[in-house]
Amino acid sequence: MGQTQTVLDQGITELILLWREETATGMESIVALNMATPCTAVVGSTFADPADTATHHTDGGLTIQAIDTVGGTTVNTAGDTITFDHVFTATGTKNVAGIHVCNNDDDVAFIECCFNAVLPMENTDTLTIDGQSTINQA
Amino acid sequence: MKTATRGSFKVYATGEHREGVCEKCHIKLIKEFYMDGDRKRVRMVCPECGGMGRLIAKTFSIQPPNPPQCLSFRCLYRFFMDTLFCALLSNYHRRRVAYAEINRHKEILERYRTGEPSPSSILGAIVANMKLRCPICRKYNYF
Question: Do the Cβ atoms of A40 and B3 come within 8 Å?
């Protein structure tokens, strides 16, 4: 299976709460997924329960942290896309199977991405994430 | 294995795995913010020479084909071909990234680290998969 990525059901629920001006927060955090084999992204994954048997990294420079840059851009129609960029710097030997993009409260995952293959990070290695999510109106 | 994605709410993401020490100056890279058009972005650079560290592997975002829009033979055939291409391309990039990661300290063709050029046809994807599987063919950049 190749790389899979999707907006999660939980993320859409949070988005609807934002539109309704109820208690919700926007895209703010990112965390690397820990798994020895490649995972497969599914819409039903949650912050607490990522795809397959993946878990969030809790150390080694790959823990949940504020996304470096979040912005808006245009793919099909004006302002239909949110972009995000982030650099992880590993502080030990760790496997990265993918990422979760989360809200500011760190309790909801908006996006799940499982990479083509597991990336074995060594100390000081960097992982630059380039992402975007588009509501395609075309 | 079953995967589900949204047709009208798509995500594209890539991960670029690099060494964190400049291969030329042997000093640790630092985070730099820069503008790419209107988009503010971030990267790791060497404070001395501006190098970005040796690339180990870059993942590739593959989108599943859109579902067929009609039940005619032409629509179904096109969907079948798109699905086949997606499967072959997924297989190629899965194997390519794994190959690049295993050989992180060895010299391999740059195309296996960057993923560019990526196969753009079914035939191209079949050839790329066969070439990657062959230990002799994957050392040469002749097609």
Answer: yes
Tell me, yes or no, whether A83 lies in a domain: no
Provide the residue range defining the domain that includes A30: 4-70+92-124
User: Region A33-42: what's the mean pLDDT?
Assistant: 92
In this prediction, what percent of chain A has a pLDDT beyond 90? 83
pLDDT of residue B104: 92
Task: Look at chain A and report how many structural domains it folds into.
Answer: 1
Shortest distance, CA A57 to any CA of chain B (angstroms)? 16
Phi, psi (degrees; rounded to nearest 5) at B15: -120, 130
ipTM: 0.91
Is the same domain home to B139 and B106? yes
Question: Do both B67 and B114 map to the same domain?
Answer: yes
Please state, in angstroms and as integers, the Cα–Cα distance from residue B113 to each residue in A23, B103, B106, following that order.
43, 10, 11
CB pairs under 8 A between A and B: 164
Which one-letter amino acid corresponds to residue B86?
A: C
Distance from CA of B74 to the nearest CA of A (A): 22
pLDDT value for A70 = 95
Residues B64 and B85: their CA atoms lie apart, in Å, by 10
Task: Kindly report the pTM of this predicted structure.
Answer: 0.89
Same domain, B69 and B127: yes
Q: Do B3 and A41 touch (CB under 8 A)?
A: yes
